Amino acid sequence: MKDTWKKVLFEYFLITISTLCMAVGIYYFKFPNNFTFGGVSGLSVVLSPFIPLSPSAINFIINALLLILGFLFLGRGFGIRTVYSSTLLSVSLSLLDQIAPLSAPLTDEPLLELIFAVLLPGFGSAVLFNIGASSGGTDIVAMILRKYTSVDIGRALLLSDLLITLTAFFVFDMKTALFSLLGLISKSLVVDNVIESINLCKSFNVVCSSPDKICTFITETLHRSATVFEAHGAFSHNHNYVVLTVLKPYQAVALRRFIRENEPGAFILITNTSEIIGKGFQR
What we know:
The protein is an alpha+beta fold and 283 residues long.
């Protein structure tokens, strides 16, 4: 029970930090430059000239409808975390507007501001997606597509936001619309790469003549497990063993150093992997 509460608190800590990152990126870099990238915030800005409601009111209505869809298609747990993140994002944007208002771009370099407008919200969205949450808006549509189709999360975001960004070509000037389109494409790549980096592990295939020392180090020092196969050298015809294990990056450094010092004749194959399902990893 205690471990469960620790996990929940840590998840909400990550949600809080990620959402605040998004708020800073949106308020200080996205809004002043009219970068839409799609999303509910972009849709609200696009619709506000044609609807007798403020962008914040339009944003609230659309987010409420999408949260209902999230509850229906993704489950109650998703909805609770997303309601928290969506509410925190709205409150944070309002507080920034009151405490440190900004009505014009920070610099006269739109490309520089575009980079921050992509990186900060992209990083925040990726962390939220990785723990099964979202800041609301069209992110919910993307997660529904991810659950019921084989579309990657970045591509799902691209599909759900593309129409909104294209609409910006008819509302804003060409320069702003082109920057928004570039931002949309860049954000989808950032999200995919951040998610992959968060889940990154190192897969080891170690060919050696004596696996006992290596296995002992893996199990007793790194507190991981390993699988040992018998192998036969195609060229040398020697009888060898293959030790297979998957480790976190910091553990991989320790194992590589240990093998070099204690089994210098071992052949080591190390590959990056981000999709691992099983005990000790994703379930």
